Amino acid sequence: MIDRFGRPLEDLRITLTHVCNFQCFFCHMEGEEGMENGLNKDEILLVAKVAKKFGINSVKLTGGEPTLRRDLAEIIQGLKQLGYKDVSMTTNGFLLKDLAPKLKLAGLDRINISLHAVSRETFKKITGVDAFDKVIEGIKEAIDEGLRPVKLNFVVNKRNLAEAFKFIELAQDLGVDEIHLIELHPVGLGKTAFNEHDDLTKIEEYISKIAIKKQIRKKHFRPRYILSSGLVVEVVKPYANPIFCAGCNRIRLSVDGKLKTCLYREDNIIDILDILKANYPKDVKEELLERAFMIAIAIREPNFKYKI
Ligand code: SAM
What we know:
Strand content: 15-25%
Binding site for [4Fe-4S] cluster 1: 20, 24, 27
Binding site for S-adenosyl-L-methionine: 64, 114
Strand order of the largest sheet: 7-8-9-6-5-4-3-2-1-10-11-12
Bound molecules: S-adenosylmethionine
Keywords: 4Fe-4S, GTP-binding, Iron, Iron-sulfur, Lyase, Metal-binding, Molybdenum cofactor biosynthesis, Nucleotide-binding, S-adenosyl-L-methionine
EC number: 4.1.99.22
Pathway: Cofactor biosynthesis; molybdopterin biosynthesis
């Protein structure tokens, strides 16, 4: 399905919970408010089933911290049974050392692990938790389990700016496939943390100098730099960036049962909680959800647009 701005819908991002064991000072909470846990496994899978009918072929699980959902492996298994070829998750990695084998077995294809520091001190300053070493163990386990490509997310801000260059070295030493250097955006706690924002210009200049190749990814038209070591460095700059929005192929399912068409927007949201919780037969729910998806696609629009 293509929206009226010519953007195909291909990716479903599901917030599984708002519960988290870290307290990152900039957390955007996926642009959501409301309850900590809303939908059960069957409700989530029903939405994913309908999404697939609209041509969506990849699912990203997020949170809060998705590994805190006890039914995470069952949800992954259910998504694979629906035929999703690409099921991935973004996690803080705290529980990954123990969980990675179970998630791989359930069918998880690949993983993004947030690591916003290269030292214990900075890690604690950002997440509020002294868990740098534990997350590194989790990353190693994800690599061993073959949850590839293993990608690390690093949200650049004034507390970790001095470590951004060292982060590239650490990623290469660990043997991960890709890193995402992400611009902090003013959503959720990111609004009050925005005084610690950096625009990534210097970092991107440096990376473009040491890269052997540059590509543009179809998703969000993100620039990707390939280093001689093979490490891929993606620079993710969504804020006030019409090019990023023009390449957005994503729709979100929030914890409280809403189809959210944009991280930044409070409007253009379709509330499907009533459909999911109502005492209707499954086929009726499916039909109503199809209509909800059609409306979501019809109203979907880029947050940042070029103005003439
Ligand atoms: N707890 C998981 C984690 O830490 O990856 C999943 C949830 S987290 C909200 C998903 C991703 O959003 C992480 O990579 C995180 O660092 C990033 N993120 C959170 N707040 C952000 C902000 N204000 N600006 C940019 N990225 C942000």
